[in-house]
Design brief:
This protein is an alpha+beta fold. The protein has six helices and nine strands. It has a single domain, classed as ATP-grasp fold, B domain (D-amino Acid Aminotransferase, Chain A, domain 1), CATH 3.30.470.20. The longest helix has 23 residues. Bound molecules: uridine-5'-diphosphate.
Protein backbone atom coordinates (compact mmCIF):
# COMPACT_ATOMS: atom_id res chain seq x y z
CA UNK A 1 0.00 0.00 0.00
CA UNK A 2 2.91 2.30 0.84
CA UNK A 3 4.46 1.62 -2.55
CA UNK A 4 1.17 2.30 -4.33
CA UNK A 5 0.75 5.58 -2.46
CA UNK A 6 4.34 6.48 -3.47
CA UNK A 7 3.58 6.07 -7.18
CA UNK A 8 0.33 8.02 -6.94
CA UNK A 9 -2.19 5.19 -6.74
CA UNK A 10 -4.36 6.32 -3.82
CA UNK A 11 -5.03 3.75 -1.09
CA UNK A 12 -6.74 3.76 2.30
CA UNK A 13 -3.41 3.17 4.06
CA UNK A 14 -2.13 5.99 6.26
CA UNK A 15 0.51 4.37 8.46
CA UNK A 16 1.44 1.25 10.31
CA UNK A 17 0.87 1.43 14.07
CA UNK A 18 2.52 -1.87 15.05
CA UNK A 19 2.93 -5.46 13.74
CA UNK A 20 -0.82 -6.00 13.80
CA UNK A 21 -2.52 -2.63 13.41
CA UNK A 22 -2.70 0.03 10.73
CA UNK A 23 -4.25 3.45 10.59
CA UNK A 24 -6.41 3.63 7.46
CA UNK A 25 -8.94 5.98 5.90
CA UNK A 26 -12.54 5.04 6.33
CA UNK A 27 -14.18 4.42 2.93
CA UNK A 28 -17.62 3.67 1.57
CA UNK A 29 -16.76 0.28 0.10
CA UNK A 30 -18.03 -0.49 -3.41
CA UNK A 31 -19.70 -3.93 -3.19
CA UNK A 32 -17.51 -5.40 -5.93
CA UNK A 33 -14.38 -7.50 -5.97
CA UNK A 34 -12.10 -6.35 -8.74
CA UNK A 35 -10.01 -9.21 -10.11
CA UNK A 36 -7.08 -8.77 -12.49
CA UNK A 37 -5.62 -11.78 -14.28
CA UNK A 38 -2.35 -12.07 -16.20
CA UNK A 39 -2.56 -15.84 -16.65
CA UNK A 40 -5.46 -18.25 -16.49
CA UNK A 41 -6.07 -19.98 -13.16
CA UNK A 42 -8.76 -20.69 -10.58
CA UNK A 43 -12.33 -19.85 -11.52
CA UNK A 44 -11.38 -18.56 -15.00
CA UNK A 45 -9.81 -21.90 -15.92
CA UNK A 46 -12.81 -23.75 -14.51
CA UNK A 47 -15.43 -21.53 -16.15
CA UNK A 48 -13.91 -21.39 -19.63
CA UNK A 49 -11.71 -24.48 -19.70
CA UNK A 50 -8.52 -22.49 -20.20
CA UNK A 51 -5.43 -24.42 -18.99
CA UNK A 52 -3.97 -23.13 -15.75
CA UNK A 53 -0.93 -20.97 -16.41
CA UNK A 54 -1.87 -19.94 -19.97
CA UNK A 55 -0.70 -16.38 -20.60
CA UNK A 56 -3.62 -14.06 -21.41
CA UNK A 57 -3.20 -11.77 -24.41
CA UNK A 58 -3.82 -8.79 -22.12
CA UNK A 59 -4.64 -8.33 -18.43
CA UNK A 60 -8.25 -9.31 -17.87
CA UNK A 61 -10.34 -7.32 -15.38
CA UNK A 62 -13.40 -9.02 -13.88
CA UNK A 63 -15.99 -7.91 -11.32
CA UNK A 64 -17.69 -10.08 -8.73
CA UNK A 65 -20.59 -8.96 -6.55
CA UNK A 66 -19.57 -9.10 -2.89
CA UNK A 67 -22.09 -11.43 -1.29
CA UNK A 68 -20.84 -14.46 0.61
CA UNK A 69 -24.27 -16.11 0.66
CA UNK A 70 -24.32 -16.03 -3.17
CA UNK A 71 -20.66 -17.04 -3.44
CA UNK A 72 -19.49 -13.66 -4.83
CA UNK A 73 -20.90 -14.20 -8.36
CA UNK A 74 -19.20 -12.83 -11.47
CA UNK A 75 -21.15 -9.83 -12.82
CA UNK A 76 -20.95 -7.70 -15.95
CA UNK A 77 -20.82 -3.92 -16.26
CA UNK A 78 -24.52 -4.13 -17.23
CA UNK A 79 -25.41 -5.66 -13.86
CA UNK A 80 -23.34 -3.02 -12.09
CA UNK A 81 -25.10 -0.19 -13.92
CA UNK A 82 -28.57 -1.74 -13.59
CA UNK A 83 -28.32 -2.24 -9.85
CA UNK A 84 -26.50 1.06 -9.28
CA UNK A 85 -23.45 -0.46 -7.56
CA UNK A 86 -21.17 1.95 -9.42
CA UNK A 87 -21.48 4.59 -12.13
CA UNK A 88 -19.84 4.39 -15.56
CA UNK A 89 -17.22 6.89 -14.36
CA UNK A 90 -16.58 4.72 -11.27
CA UNK A 91 -16.16 1.69 -13.52
CA UNK A 92 -13.62 3.47 -15.70
CA UNK A 93 -11.74 4.61 -12.59
CA UNK A 94 -11.84 1.12 -11.09
CA UNK A 95 -10.41 -0.50 -14.22
CA UNK A 96 -7.70 2.13 -14.42
CA UNK A 97 -6.79 1.73 -10.71
CA UNK A 98 -6.79 -2.06 -11.01
CA UNK A 99 -4.46 -2.01 -14.05
CA UNK A 100 -2.06 0.39 -12.33
CA UNK A 101 -2.01 -1.85 -9.25
CA UNK A 102 -1.34 -4.81 -11.59
CA UNK A 103 1.64 -3.11 -13.24
CA UNK A 104 3.09 -2.06 -9.90
CA UNK A 105 2.62 -5.41 -8.14
CA UNK A 106 3.80 -7.43 -11.14
CA UNK A 107 7.05 -5.42 -11.03
CA UNK A 108 7.47 -5.78 -7.27
CA UNK A 109 7.05 -9.56 -7.49
CA UNK A 110 9.13 -9.96 -10.66
CA UNK A 111 12.03 -8.30 -8.83
CA UNK A 112 11.99 -11.15 -6.29
CA UNK A 113 11.50 -13.96 -8.81
CA UNK A 114 7.74 -14.33 -8.44
CA UNK A 115 5.03 -14.28 -11.09
CA UNK A 116 1.81 -12.38 -10.29
CA UNK A 117 -0.82 -14.64 -11.86
CA UNK A 118 -3.90 -12.83 -10.59
CA UNK A 119 -5.21 -10.86 -7.63
CA UNK A 120 -8.29 -9.27 -6.14
CA UNK A 121 -8.65 -5.78 -4.75
CA UNK A 122 -11.52 -3.82 -3.30
CA UNK A 123 -12.13 -0.17 -3.90
CA UNK A 124 -13.79 2.45 -1.72
CA UNK A 125 -15.24 5.90 -2.13
CA UNK A 126 -13.95 8.85 -0.12
CA UNK A 127 -15.27 12.36 -0.08
CA UNK A 128 -13.12 15.48 -0.17
CA UNK A 129 -15.77 18.13 0.42
CA UNK A 130 -18.26 17.69 -2.41
CA UNK A 131 -15.88 15.67 -4.54
CA UNK A 132 -15.68 11.94 -4.40
CA UNK A 133 -12.79 9.80 -5.48
CA UNK A 134 -12.04 6.12 -5.51
CA UNK A 135 -9.15 4.61 -3.61
CA UNK A 136 -7.75 1.11 -3.14
CA UNK A 137 -8.95 -0.41 0.15
CA UNK A 138 -9.04 -3.74 2.01
CA UNK A 139 -5.91 -5.88 1.68
CA UNK A 140 -3.31 -7.10 -0.77
CA UNK A 141 -1.78 -10.33 0.49
CA UNK A 142 -1.03 -13.93 -0.48
CA UNK A 143 -4.64 -14.60 0.55
CA UNK A 144 -5.82 -12.39 -2.31
CA UNK A 145 -3.14 -12.94 -4.98
CA UNK A 146 -1.88 -15.95 -6.92
CA UNK A 147 1.90 -15.95 -6.73
CA UNK A 148 4.11 -18.55 -8.44
CA UNK A 149 7.87 -18.89 -8.24
CA UNK A 150 9.21 -18.04 -11.71
CA UNK A 151 11.92 -20.75 -11.71
CA UNK A 152 10.07 -23.67 -10.16
CA UNK A 153 6.38 -22.81 -10.44
CA UNK A 154 6.03 -23.35 -6.67
CA UNK A 155 2.88 -21.70 -5.32
CA UNK A 156 3.35 -19.11 -2.60
CA UNK A 157 -0.28 -18.21 -1.91
CA UNK A 158 -3.42 -19.60 -0.32
CA UNK A 159 -3.74 -22.32 -2.99
CA UNK A 160 -1.03 -24.13 -0.96
CA UNK A 161 -3.66 -24.54 1.75
CA UNK A 162 -6.66 -25.01 -0.53
CA UNK A 163 -5.01 -27.75 -2.60
CA UNK A 164 -2.94 -29.24 0.24
CA UNK A 165 0.37 -28.48 -1.49
CA UNK A 166 2.49 -28.26 1.68
CA UNK A 167 2.89 -26.04 4.67
CA UNK A 168 1.21 -22.67 4.24
CA UNK A 169 3.36 -21.00 6.91
CA UNK A 170 6.52 -22.06 5.02
CA UNK A 171 5.17 -20.57 1.78
CA UNK A 172 4.11 -17.29 3.39
CA UNK A 173 7.39 -17.01 5.30
CA UNK A 174 9.34 -17.55 2.07
CA UNK A 175 7.29 -14.82 0.39
CA UNK A 176 7.76 -12.40 3.30
CA UNK A 177 11.52 -13.08 3.30
CA UNK A 178 11.85 -12.45 -0.42
CA UNK A 179 9.91 -9.21 -0.15
CA UNK A 180 12.13 -8.12 2.75
CA UNK A 181 9.14 -8.00 5.11
CA UNK A 182 10.86 -10.55 7.37
CA UNK A 183 14.61 -10.88 8.02
CA UNK A 184 16.31 -13.58 5.91
CA UNK A 185 16.89 -15.93 8.87
CA UNK A 186 13.29 -16.02 10.11
CA UNK A 187 11.88 -19.49 10.82
CA UNK A 188 8.25 -20.11 9.97
CA UNK A 189 5.69 -19.88 12.74
CA UNK A 190 3.77 -23.10 12.20
CA UNK A 191 1.61 -22.99 15.30
CA UNK A 192 -0.38 -20.05 16.64
CA UNK A 193 2.06 -18.12 18.83
CA UNK A 194 1.52 -15.14 21.03
CA UNK A 195 3.77 -12.28 20.02
CA UNK A 196 4.46 -9.96 22.97
N1 LIG B 1 -9.91 -13.79 -4.64
C1 LIG B 1 -9.99 -13.28 -3.36
N2 LIG B 1 -11.18 -13.32 -2.71
C2 LIG B 1 -12.30 -13.83 -3.25
C3 LIG B 1 -12.22 -14.34 -4.58
C4 LIG B 1 -11.02 -14.31 -5.24
O1 LIG B 1 -9.00 -12.80 -2.83
O2 LIG B 1 -13.36 -13.81 -2.61
C5 LIG B 1 -8.63 -13.76 -5.37
C6 LIG B 1 -8.00 -15.13 -5.45
O3 LIG B 1 -7.11 -15.33 -4.37
C7 LIG B 1 -7.24 -15.08 -6.76
C8 LIG B 1 -8.07 -14.11 -7.62
O4 LIG B 1 -8.87 -13.36 -6.71
O5 LIG B 1 -5.96 -14.50 -6.57
C9 LIG B 1 -8.95 -14.83 -8.62
O6 LIG B 1 -9.74 -15.76 -7.92
P1 LIG B 1 -10.65 -16.79 -8.74
O7 LIG B 1 -11.78 -16.05 -9.38
O8 LIG B 1 -9.80 -17.60 -9.64
O9 LIG B 1 -11.33 -17.65 -7.62
P2 LIG B 1 -10.73 -18.85 -6.81
O10 LIG B 1 -10.79 -20.03 -7.69
O11 LIG B 1 -9.36 -18.46 -6.39
O12 LIG B 1 -11.68 -18.92 -5.66
Amino acid sequence: MNGLNEIGVPTHFIRRLNMREQLIRSVEIIPLEVIVRNRAAGSLSKRLGIPEGKVLPRPLVEFCYKDDALGDPLVTEEHIATFGWASQQDLDDMVSLALRVNDFLAGVFLAVGIRLVDFKIEIGRVWDGEYQRLIVADEISPDSCRLWDIETGRKLDKDVFRHDLGNLADAYTELARRLGVLPANTTPVTKPTLIN
